[in-house]
Design brief:
This protein has 236 residues and is an alpha/beta fold. The protein folds into two domains: 140 residues, ATPase, nucleotide binding domain (Nucleotidyltransferase, domain 5, 2-Layer Sandwich); 90 residues, Nucleotidyltransferase, domain 5. 33% of the residues lie in helices and 25% in strands. It contains seven helices and twelve strands. The relative contact order is 0.19.
Length: 236
């Protein structure tokens, strides 16, 4: 089988091609240190075309499309999820949706610590969840949450366990975690959802037939967008 994976939950635009034999190639544009205006709408389609060209793959060869569904940046998620759904509908293949926090946690599954991915949600908040390593992967030990860095730091402190914090939210608000005992930051290599994890998890789900028709795939929004909040304020 041949799979295209897309993740646009953060400032990084990520595209990956993979088969059951491993990765064929990937493209990453931008990242947490890139403070320019995110260009998801302009850059995603050209990135897909470039990757397919470099790997000598036609979109018609795809068996499925995987997509990180967030939580994350509203515009980025809309672009990524919509692109994945349109491609899947056009090619008549299924979509495999995977939460982007899962994609941050999975590469750290060999840790003996709690794993806490945190995605920058702007407004001095982060999206986060708490995971435990289990044989072969990770198991989520909380809901997908939205809160301030201090809220997350308080929850970590209350658990009192060895903890590894990752994601661009951990980088941006590192000061909130520095004084916590038994807590480490994973560093820049784990700032964005892993494209390798997206490919690996999606292919495993495809083989188990755990996929969705495009019409049922939606972004994971944990709060209203800035535009919705501004409209309500004006209406009030």
């Amino acid at each position: 089988m041949l799979l295209l994976g897309i993740d646009t939950a953060t400032r990084r635009i990520g595209v990956v091609l993979a088969s059951e034999n491993g990765l064929l190639g990937r493209v990453e544009i931008g990242g947490p240190e890139d403070r320019a205006r995110p260009r998801h709408a302009e850059a995603l389609a050209p990135a897909i075309r470039y990757l397919c060209g470099e790997c000598s793959v036609s979109l018609r060869q795809l068996s499925a499309v995987a997509v990180g569904i967030g939580p994350g940046m509203f515009t980025g998620l809309r672009v990524g999820v919509t692109t994945a759904k349109v491609l899947a509908q056009t090619l008549r293949v299924p979509v495999i949706p995977i939460p982007s926090l899962d994609l941050l946690a999975y590469p750290l599954r060999h840790s003996r610590s709690l794993i806490v991915p945190a995605i920058d949600a702007r407004r001095h908040e982060v999206y986060y969840a708490i995971y435990r390593p289990v044989p072969g992967g990770v198991q989520r030990d909380s809901e997908y949450e939205l809160g301030s860095p201090d809220d997350l730091a308080g929850e970590i402190a209350a658990r009192g366990e060895e903890t590894l914090v990752c994601g661009d939210g951990a980088q941006r608000f590192a000061a909130s975690f520095h004084d916590l005992d038994r807590v480490e930051l994973a560093g820049a290599a784990h700032a964005a959802p892993s494209l390798s994890a997206l490919a690996e998890l999606a292919i495993a789900r495809y083989e188990r037939e755990e996929f969705s028709p495009p019409s049922e795939v939606l972004p994971m929004y944990l709060r209203r967008s800035d535009a919705e909040i501004a409209w309500q304020s004006r209406s009030a």
